[in-house]
Each structure stands twice: as C-alpha cells, then as structure tokens.
Amino acid sequence: MRYILYLLITSVIAIACQSKKEVAENHEHHAPAVQPEADTVKKSLPQETHAMIGDAHITINYTAPVVKGRVIWGGLVPYNEVWVTGAHRATSFEINKSFSMDGKTIPAGKYAIFTIPGEESWTFIVNKNWDQHLADDYTPSEDVIRMTIIPERLDQNQERLSYSIEANSVNEGVLYVRWEKVQLAVPILVAQNQ
User: Which of 13, 106, 111, 167 is the most buried (most CB within 10 A)?
Assistant: First the structure.
C-alpha cells in the first residue's frame, strides 16, 4: 500500500513539475509584446522624427524633456543663452539634399540645431558640429546659419518637447519646434533634382 501511495505521490509531483515547465515555456514563447512607455513618464526621452519634403528625407534626433509644472522660459531654459533645444545632447538634423533657410543654401548633411530663446524673438541656429553634449562644445564659428524667429503662442500646453516637419509642396516645408506654450515655425526650401 505504501509503495502504491509513494508511486501515486511521485507521479503527481512529476506531472505538476511538467505542467509548470510547459506553462513557463508557453509563456516564454507567447509573451505579449512590450508596450512603449506612456507619455506620462516624467523624464526626458530620446525621440526620432522622420519626414519627407519632395524626395528629400529628413531625420531629427533629440531628447525630449517634459514641463512637469516647471517654469520653462526664463527658468529651466534661460533667456539669451545658447540651448541645445532638447535635453542632454544637441539635437541633430540630417537631410540628404541641399536645402535653404532664410535664403541661404546649406549642403546636404548632418547638423546640430541650437536656439537662443528671447522674450520677444529667438535665434535659430544650424551648426556643423552635430555631436555635442549640451552646449558645452558649441562654437559660434561653426554656425552654418543664424536666423531670427518670432515664437508663436500655443493655446494648449505641449507637455513634452516635440519636433515635426510638415511639407507644403514638393520642395517647401516647415520645421516645427513645440514645448510648453511656445511654437517655432522654421521654413525650409529643399533643392530638387540633385
């Protein structure tokens, strides 16, 4: 009798262990995809924006901070100082065609975007050195262009910094930078048939 009871208990344990192993293997192979972090995350997140103006491909890489109830302009981001227009590293702007901003033609390539926020107007900067930490390595002599932009007021708060590009035609578009209640609109003209 003890022997039968021993066999029965051993069999039940073996079956239970096998079932656990199958459940674990099944779970391992059919686990749901990891969901991206919701935008309720209160830290700066790396972002990448892609856009086309005609046949020109544009990529913008930046780190997007959040407002988190802070005073942004004249507070976290001081007025009249060079800003990476993001967090941590300089924002990079890469385009595979030559383009124009404010009437100046700029060769295809990869650049850094900086701004100098002001209370009434901002300076928008395209700089040759795209691989920079904050504005630590920023050198004005490497600026490709500086242009004055009048910021627009947004009706609704833009909690996380965002970059986007909207094409208006086959060779014209607008680069938008939005954060808090400020929007910058920078016209871009792309060369065709290169």
Answer: 111
